[in-house]
Amino acid sequence: MKLYDYPGVPNPRRLNIFMAEKGIEIPRFQIDLLKGEQFSPEFRAKSPNCDVPTLELDDGTCISQTNAICRYLETIHPTPPLFGTTAKEIGVIEMWNQICFTNGFQAVADLFRNGPDWFEGRGLIGPHNYEKIPALVERGRVRILNFYEDINHHLANQCYFAGNHFSAADITALVTVDFAQWAKVEIPEQHKNLHHWHALVSERPSVLSNS
Amino acid sequence: MKLYDYPGVPNPRRLNIFMAEKGIEIPRFQIDLLKGEQFSPEFRAKSPNCDVPTLELDDGTCISQTNAICRYLETIHPTPPLFGTTAKEIGVIEMWNQICFTNGFQAVADLFRNGPDWFEGRGLIGPHNYEKIPALVERGRVRILNFYEDINHHLANQCYFAGNHFSAADITALVTVDFAQWAKVEIPEQHKNLHHWHALVSERPSVLSNS
């Protein structure tokens, strides 16, 4: 296998934390997003959605989308499980993974990519160029703060997003919170549960080695 | 189990097609989205994200988010598999499920919810109100047409999104295409592969019984 990667940016970071939790090593090839290497004809042939990370299997099949690569890896390296083992765990983890991605991660991406710190014409990730929409900056900021309030409430009675075990949902949420700092949005001080969770997960070796 | 449902709208339709493919029946309770029943205190206690569909298990655990409910059901009713069985199938199906949802379904939602046919202050699904952003209407239309061109190309060499078998990715794509018709966007005539796939999947009993 080969992993096409660009360390440090949010989606590759999600995958790298996931792999570190499982102790998985795969040879890495860097696709320099700032130089636009994800749009080269060679890389598009592997990842038509111009996504990093992308995993190339030994038979040439390529899998992009962070969740999809994680699910592939969960199947071949099931321990420790990060998407759950019982049906209930599997459902609850996927619910929080989706909620954190949609309400959190995508809100941060809207705020960051539509503001002055990102490239013109790249308001959305993916193979096509879309102009920035300035109204998404402020909506993104409000969404993140609403998300923080909601998850602070959710974390009142449990250590992690899906109960008592660290899961893929915590990885998505952690990377979202740290990504929001790029866009200068911090967790409000009063959200004690969220601060406690963030400190707890930030101490994990998988996170420390991908910070 | 109990399923909180509102038949006909896109996310519940995804789940209902998925269940029909597996022959799963669960007692249904209707949450009338047009009357705002998803925001009632009773329903928020089950689904803090105010999502329909939501599945309530016999122990009271509630699972919302269509993909999460589908993964729960895939685990307890694995046949026929709709998320794959080998690691490669699992990865490829999740990749296309995510791409179709992000590039297709969410683009249609942007177009539809930010236009004149939807409620004021409900530019986004979920527990919070956000004003419509008119620029998302035209961006949504362009994104759908780009998505159609991309998936028409993808379908040139295979019957279904993830190869030779119908999967959860096809359900997400089918519901996206039909949802786009609500927003008056049709598949362009020249996209023959996409038209062929749409006709093929539209004939399935699971789709005919949820149309």
Features:
Glutaredoxin; 6% strand; 211 residues; homodimer; alpha+beta; four-stranded mixed beta sheet; Glutathione S-transferase Yfyf (Class Pi), Chain A, domain 2
| Subunit arrangement of the protein | homodimer
β-strand number of chain A? 4
The parts of chain A where pLDDT drops under 50 for at least 5 residues are none
Give the helix level of chain A as a range of percent. 40-55%
Write up what this structure looks like:
Two copies of one chain form a homodimer. With 211 residues, chain A is an alpha+beta fold. The first copy, chain A, has eight helices and four strands; from the N terminus they run βαβαββαααααα. The first copy, chain A, has helices at residues 10-22, 41-46, 66-76, 87-113, 135-154, 168-182, 192-202, 205-208, and strands at residues 2-5, 28-30, 54-56, 62-64. In chain A, strands 2-1-3-4 form a four-stranded mixed beta sheet, covered by helices on one side. In chain A, a hairpin with a 5-residue loop joins strand 3 and strand 4. The model of chain A has no long low-confidence stretch (mean pLDDT 97). Chains A and B meet through helix 3, helix 4 and helix 5 of A and helix 3, helix 4 and helix 5 of B.
What's this model, at a glance?
The structure is a homodimer of 211-residue chains. By secondary structure, chain A is an alpha+beta fold.
Q: How are the SSEs ordered, and which strands pair?
A:
The structure is a homodimer of 211-residue chains.
Chain A lengths: L1 E4 L4 H13 L5 E3 L10 H6 L7 E3 L5 E3 L1 H11 L10 H27 L21 H20 L13 H15 L9 H11 L2 H4 L3
Helix pairs in contact in A: 1-3, 1-6, 4-5, 4-6, 5-7
